[in-house]
Structure formats: structure tokens, C-alpha cells
Amino acid sequence: MGRDDRGHAARAASLLGAVDAGLGKAIALARWMASNPELSLEEFETSRRYIEYLRGHGFEVVRDVAGLETAFVATRGSSEAKLRVALLAEMDALPDLGHACGHNLSGPASLLVAAALASEVAPEELALVVVGCPAEETGAGKGRLVESGVFADVDAALMAHASDMRRAHRLFLGNRKLEFTFHGRAAHAAAYPERGLNALDAVILLFNGVSLLRQQLSASVKVHGIISEGGRAPNLIPERAQALFWIRALEEEILEDAAGRVDACAAGAAAATGTRLEHRALESSSPPMRPNLPLAGAYRRQLAFLGLRETTHEADRCIGSSDISHVSQVVPTIHPNFPIGADLQLHTREFAAAAASPEGEKGLLEAARALGLTVLELTLDPDLRAAVAAEG
């Protein structure tokens, strides 16, 4: 082992000691969140506690970022630092299920990493940016943060997410969320049906069209929809009906093509029924995740250093969509998984229970340790920084 290796190992050991020393406060925060879940854009107390934690570790905080009351940006370090890293701290829970996505673990893990790095890495070496990210569950948060320029001067963005698997590289499907509203003409369904234009018929034709379309779509495309409005009474021909469709794929070109073809199905349904179509793409749509393999590889090396083996799931297996993919379009980003139990599914009561368990707290520590070591390697290795930047 050369001198640089010895120095790196000593700094890694010191950083891990700082992570371990701060674990108690992070777990207390995670437990409070599990018992007090707050919904998207209502994370007022969670945001306040995050900010209080970070200010206690010397971070300067700007609140109400990007027009989001619970969003914030906390910074520590020199503007002349050779590396500027963002750690993303999610905070929202799900209706009725609480923290069934584990944000009570991933958010405090990012805060714990930030505090440990701030105590162990000089401000002129590393500038830290902790971004309080509300509304991940509704997809309304990180896109606005990106648009507001929060990540404009950031070299890399990182967070880790609870799962039943451990993987350094994880992708997200792009998601086009389309709302179709059909406007027809009401009529008595028995006495004067011929005078009506049935908006619900148009929605049903849309679903039938999409069902037939599936045969011609790429196997990687996922399309799912609901009837969000279908009429008021059986004896009244619906003058208004509505459907919400999500179209997902890993490749932007394939995603755009599939979304366009679903649009065409809606237009055809309107034409066939004589109804008027109103189309809206929702703000919470998101692009596919842009991978950064050098950065993911750095996280993988930390898992090996910690003696942790990845599970066998590929990066494109068992994935959904997340608004972090907006961040990945403008800055090198990773979103690895850490395990909190076996055979778990996101957005279930079982997952929420696991996120509040000792196994969940063990996962929080793993995430903080691996993320911290990844940022440390990025700080100390100019070749890695160059490789991460080159991949974009």
C-alpha cells in the first residue's frame, strides 16, 4: 500500500467514525418521521427539523426554494472548492401508508452524510449542498428545483433509497402522465339517447385502443391508466368523462413514440364518438434516468470496501419512475438501493413497517457510510472526477 493509499484509508476510517458517531441523532429523526408522516408539499415539520439539524452542523440554509414552501438549500464549504456535491434529502410520505417508500431513512441518511463530511473534509476541498426535496411521491419537487437553477454549479448529486435489494446502479423509467378529458352532450339515457354524445364511450374506446396498441409497442414500454371520471348516473348519458394514463420507458425516443400513439388513440376515440378531446400533460411527468456509470462504480467500490455484496438484480429490473431523473439530466447523479428487509414491495404497509424497524435503521447506516465514502473518493481522486464529468 502506497503513501496515498494509506492516507486515503486513514481518512476513510475517520469519516466512518464520524458517520457512526452521528448515527443516534439521524435515527431519532428517522423514528420521528415514521411516527409523524407528512404528505407531499405538507412536510412543514419535517423540513423544519431537517433545517435545524443542518444549521446545528454549520450549514447556511435558504428556505422556500423554487416556489416550494418546504424545499430548502443548505450549503457549507468554499466557493473555490474543487468539488461541489449535492446530497438529496427527500421527506414526504404516502396517504394512508405513511413512509412506505422509506423517505424517513433516505432523508436522514443524506443529512448524516453531510454532517460527517462537513466535520472531516476541509471546506476548500469540498463544498456541500444539501437539497431538501419535497413531493417526490407526486413528482412535483425536483423538476422545479432543477428549473430554478439549484443544481447549476453542482458536480455530482447523490442519495440512496431503501429497498429489498442492494445495488449501486439503478435506473428509472421516464414517465409521461397524460390526462384525457372528453366533452360530449348530456341526454336522458332511456327517453332521448340519440340526442346525447357519450363521453364515457370515448374513454372506453380509448382503453380498447390502448389495449390493441400494446401488441405494437416495444416490450420495454409500460402503459397503465384509470378512469378518473365516468359520469354521474346510469340514466344520464355522460357529457364529461376523463382518463389518466401513465406511459413509461427507459429510452426517451421510445417513450415519446409511445406517448404519441396513446395520444392518437384518444384522438380517434373522440372522432368516433363525436366528442371533444381536451389533452393535458401533467407537470409531474419525468424523463428517463440518465446513468453515470463512473459514479455508480465508485459507490460499488465502497460497498466492496465495507464488505457488502450487491444483490443480483440488474439496474433496469423492478423499477418505476422518480423525479430524481430530472436532476440526472443536468448533473451526474446516482440513486443506489440499500436493503431493509427481504421480499418487500414499495408502497405497501409491509414496507412502511420495515422502514421503521431495526433492519431499516441498519440500512440507514449502510447508506450513509457508502455515500460518504463515495464523496470522499470523488474529493480525493481527480481522475474519477474527470470520468464522472465526461459521462455527464
Question: What are the key terms here?
Answer:
alpha/beta, 12 strands, 4-stranded antiparallel β-sheet, 392 residues, Alpha-Beta Plaits, Aminopeptidase, 11 helices, 2 domains
Summarize the model shown.
The protein is an alpha/beta fold and 392 residues long.
- Let me know the CATH homologous superfamily of the largest domain: Zn peptidases
CATH architecture of the largest domain: 3-Layer(aba) Sandwich
Count of alpha and pi helical runs? 11
Helix percent reads 40-55%
User: What is the strand content?
Assistant: 15-25%
Helix and strand pattern? HHEEEHEHEEEHEEHEHHEEHHH
Structural description of this entry:
This protein is of the alpha/beta class. The chain has two domains: 3-172 and 287-391, Aminopeptidase (3-Layer(aba) Sandwich); 175-281, Alpha-Beta Plaits. It has eleven helices and twelve strands. It has helices at residues 3-35, 44-55, 103-120, 142-147, 199-213, 252-273, 293-305, 324-328, 349-355, 358-380, 382-391, and strands at residues 60-63, 72-76, 83-90, 126-133, 156-158, 161-163, 174-183, 222-229, 240-249, 276-281, 333-334, 337-339. A six-stranded mixed beta sheet has the order 1-2-4-3-5-11. A four-stranded antiparallel beta sheet has the order 8-9-7-10, covered by helices on one side. It has a two-stranded parallel sheet with strand order 6-12. A hairpin with an 8-residue loop joins strand 1 (60-63) and strand 2. Helix 5 (199-213) packs antiparallel against helix 6, helix 7 packs across helix 10 and helix 7 packs across helix 11 (382-391). The radius of gyration is 24 Å and the shape is elongated.
